[in-house]
Amino acid sequence: MSVSIRHSAATTVRYPIWDPEAETRPRPELEALQLERLRELVSRLATVPFYRDQLTHRDIGPHSLRSPADIRKLPFTTKDDMRRQHPLGLLAVPRKALARIHGSSGTTGKPTFVAYTARDLETWSDLCARFLVSGGLAPEHTAQVAFGYGLFTGGFGLHYGIERVGATVIPAAAGNTRRQIEIMRDLDPEVLICTPSYALTIADTARELGMDPRALPIRIGHFGGEPWTEDMRREIEEQLDIDAYNNYGLSEVIGPGVSGECPARAGMHIQEDHFLVECLDPETLEPVAEGEPGELVITSLTREAMPMLRYRTRDIARLYREPCACGRTTTRMSRVAGRTDDMLIIRGVNVFPSQIEEALLRVEGTTPHYLIEVSRPSTLDEVHVKVEIHPEIFSDRMDRMQALCERISREIHTVAGIRAHVDLVEPRSIERFVGKAKRVLDKRDLTDQAL
Amino acid sequence: MKLQQLSLFLENRPGRLGAPLEAIAAEGINILTLSLADTAQFGILRLIVREWDKAKRVLEEAGWVVNLTEVVAVDLLDRPGGLAQALKILEGANLNIEYMYAFSLRRGDKAILIFRFEDPDRAIQVLLDKGLHVVDGDELMSFVS
Fold first, then answer.
1. B7 CB near a chain A CB, below 8 Å?
2. Do B6 and B46 belong together in one domain?
3. B-chain residues within 8 Å CB-CB of A395?
4. Alpha helical stretches, state H, A71-194
5. Does domain A8-340 have CATH number 3.40.50.12780?
6. Which domain, by its residues, includes B87?
7. Which end of chain A is more exposed for a tag (fewer CB within 10 A), N or C?
C-alpha cells in the first residue's frame, strides 16, 4: 500500500469524530450489527416483488444468514435490473412514504430514479456529516457547495450534511466560475465542495482574474463525483493552498456518503454500519484477496425506500481492513481505479456511450459510424462526438449542416445531460473494427496506482 | 437552363482541399468555378465542372460524399449596381437565395454569377421575364473553351 501525503499538517491534525460510537465500534460488534441489519433487510425485501421472487427461488430467509459473509448467498442487483424496474419498481415502502426522489444516469435515455423516506434523508445527512467532519469541517465554518442541485445527488446530499454539522452552507451550485470566486471573496468560506477538476478550474479562473488562488479563503476541499489521482490532489493542494479530501458514493445506493477520507488519507472509510461492501473479481464473482483490485458490490443495510441488495457498482477499487491511525475501525477503500463497464464520468456526470448512441439514433442518418472522444485540455472534461458524413445527411447548404450539428448536440444534452461538441468528419475517417466497434476514445489519465 | 453543381464535404484541416481537386485533375476535368463555405471545423466545397457526372463518379469512388444541386448562372452588366438590380428583382419576386458566388471569368462587359435558389425553376422564369440573361450549360462551356 502506498500512501502519499503532502501536508505534514494532514498527518498530525486530529479532527473530531462525528459519531464516535458508529465510527470506532469494535469489529465484532460492528459485524454483529451488520448481520442484524442484513437479516432485517432480507425481511423487508419481501415487500419488493423483484427481490421476493429471487429470495423465494433460492429459498433464502433472514435465518439463512449466520454471518455478514453469508451475504454471498444473496442475489446481485445490476443497473439493468433497475432499468427493468423503471421508474419505481424497487420501492420497499408505499409511494406516499417517500420524502424525495433523485436520479442518476440510466444506460439509455431514461434516468434511474432513487427514492428516500424522511428517515433515509436523516441517515444520508448524517453519513455526509461523518466524512465532512473527518476531513475538517467544523460548526463554525462556512462551506460553499459548487455541485449541481437537482436530480443529481451531489448538491443536496452535501448541502444537508453541512447543515447537519451546524456549519453555514452557501448553495452556490455548479458553474459560473467568476461568480463562485466573487462569492468566496465576499463570504470567506473555509470549505469548498465540488468535483476535483472544478477546483482546478477555480484556480485557473482566479489567475485569469489576476488573483493568487492561494489567497482565496478556502482551506479545505471535499472533492468527489469523478475519479481523480494523487497527482491531481497535489496539484489542487498546491494551487489553492488547501487540504483536499476524497469522498465516494453513488446515487443507486444513496449518493455521496458511502465513504470518505480522514486526515491519515490512507483510503476512504466505508460507513459499514449502513453499507456492506464486498470486493469481488468481476469475472468469477468471488472475493479478491485483501488489498487486491476488484469490483465493489454494495448492499445498503438501512435504506428504507429503495434498499439495494448486492448492487454491482462496476467501480474497481481495493479494500483495506487493518486499523487506521485515526482510530476508526471501519474498512477503507482506495480511489476508484476504473470501471468494469464503459461508463464515462464527464464533469461529474455519469454518461454511458449507449446514451450518446440513443441520441444519434434520434437524428436520422447519423449512425452507424461515430466516435466519442473525451479529453481534458486544461482542467475540465470535453467531449467531442465525431459523426461521419454520408449522402443522407450532407447538404450543400451551410445553414443545414450547422443545424444538423446543433440538433445532434441538443439530443445528446437531452439524453445524457452533457454538452458535447459535434464534429462532422469525412467518410471512412473513423477506424473500422471487425466485431464490436470501439466507440470511445478516452484521452484522460484519471487513474493511478496509489490510494 | 440549370447547371449541375457538385458539393463536397471536407474537414477543415491542412491539405483537405487539395485532394479532391487533384483527383478530378487527374481525370482531365477542368474546374470552371468554385466556392468554399467553411466553419472552424468543416467546409463545403462547391464546384462547377464541365463533365459533372464523370467528376461525381471519380470523387465518389475516391470516397468523398458528393451532393448534386441545380444552380442558376446569370450574366449581369459588370458595372456598379448591376448585381443590386438583379437582387432587387429577385427580392421583389420573393425568391430566396440560399447562397451565391461569382464566376471566375468575365465575358466582355458582363460578369457571371451562380445562384443557389430554393426554387430554381421559378427563379429562372422571373429572371427571364425581367429580361435578364440566364446562362445555360452549353453556353457556359462554349464561353470558357
1. yes
2. yes
3. 7, 67
4. 79-84, 118-134, 153-165, 177-187
5. yes
6. 71-134
7. N
Q: How far apart are the first and last CA of chain B?
A: 19
Same domain assignment for residues B78 and B125: yes
3-state secondary structure of A415: helix
Identify which of A290, A313, A286, A288 has the alpha carbon closest to the alpha carbon of residue A300.
Answer: A313
Residue A246 per-residue DSSP state? E
Interval A270-295: pLDDT, tens: 999 999 999 999 999 999 999 999 99
Is B116 within 8 Å of A397 when comparing Cβ atoms? Answer: yes
SS3 A400: helix
Domain boundaries, chain A: 8-340, 346-442
Q: Could you tell me which residues come within 8 angstroms of residue B124 by beta carbon, excluding any fewer than 6 positions away?
A: B1, B2, B72, B134
Say yes or no: B75 and B63 in one domain.
no
The reply to whether B144 falls in a domain is no
Sign of CA dihedral A136, A137, A139, A144: positive
Which CATH number among 1.10.10.10, 3.30.420.40, 3.30.110.70, 3.30.300.30 corresponds to the domain A346-442? Answer: 3.30.300.30
Q: Quote the ipTM score.
A: 0.85
Do B58 and B78 reside in the same domain of the chain? no
CB-based contact, B116 to chain A, within 8 Å: yes
**Nearest-angstrom CA–CA distance, A280 and A283:** 8
Q: Tell me whether residues A394 and B39 touch, CB distance under 8 A.
A: no
Determine the 3-state secondary structure of A2 from DSSP: coil
Write out chain B residues lying below 8 Å of A398, CB-based: 37, 39, 44, 99
Residues B50 and B6 in one domain: yes
Q: What is the pTM of this model?
A: 0.84
Chain B CA closest to residue A395:
B67
